[in-house]
Design a protein that fits this description.
23% of the residues lie in helices and 30% in strands. The protein is α+β, with helices and mostly antiparallel strands. It folds into two domains: 37 residues; 154 residues, no CATH class. The strands form two sheets. Strands 4-3-2-7-8-9-10-6 form an eight-stranded antiparallel sheet. Strand 9 and strand 10 form a beta hairpin. The protein starts with 24 loop residues before the first helix and ends with a helix.
Length: 217
């Protein structure tokens, strides 16, 4: 009886070529396609995440509340005198070149100390006077005021006035007015300028002192 080829059974004794495993090229291709799809999805997700991330904030100069406006920025070494007038009186600071004696580990050198006219030099805290002078040499505001006049800001009758003379005989005067009602700081302006600004309250603190704060009794 002839064998039905459709139902033909094979044994281990048949030709080995008839038992060759089925080809796997299709399964490999499927894995490759899946990998490509996953990679594309990951890339697309990264791009989308980048678009959703907030951009780096712009410089503070673009924020009207937090600008950094340098009204004065010079070295205190270039100053000849600083005169501060506040509610405690008028104080004039002048520099003095002084020699520091040599020690076992260093040679002699010269330093500049600032003293208050009429005050005892021996009792003067030169670190504190230097701090006042440095504040007068670098004056920074947060933003310009355009909606108020100098009178509105208390700058026509300032609570503090700082007059500076440089070694090349240039001068400028800082006026400090009222505290701002919004709590951002104090109003300031240079005397020879029409522009008024809001500065941090520390600007006033730098010049709001008494003689006893700088010179011991």
């Amino acid at each position: 009886m002839a064998k039905n080829e459709a139902n033909e059974q094979y044994s281990v004794f048949d030709d080995p070529i008839e038992h060759t495993p089925p080809k796997k090229s299709s399964s490999k291709m499927t894995v490759l396609i899946i990998c490509i799809v996953v990679a594309v999805c990951i890339g697309a997700a990264a791009v989308a995440a980048g678009k959703l991330m907030p951009e780096e904030s712009s410089s503070s100069s673009e924020n009207p509340l937090f600008e950094s406006v340098k009204l004065v920025d010079i070295s205190s070494d270039t100053l000849a005198s600083v005169k501060v007038t506040n509610h405690n009186g008028t104080f004039e600071f002048t520099p003095s070149q002084e020699q520091v004696e040599a020690t076992d580990t260093s040679s002699a050198y010269t330093v500049t100390n600032w003293y208050i006219t009429g005050a005892d030099k021996e009792k003067t805290n030169t670190a504190s006077t230097e701090s006042v002078v440095s504040a007068a040499a670098t004056i920074t505001a947060m933003r310009e005021i355009t909606e108020k006049t100098a009178s509105d800001c208390g700058l026509e009758a300032p609570v503090c006035e700082v007059e500076v003379i440089t070694q090349d005989s240039k001068t400028y005067t800082l006026l400090i007015g009222d505290s701002s009602p919004d709590g951002y700081g104090v109003y300031i302006k240079l005397k020879d300028s029409e522009k008024a600004y809001i500065a941090d309250s520390s600007v006033l603190s730098s010049f709001d002192f008494a003689l006893s704060d700088l010179v011991s009794e």
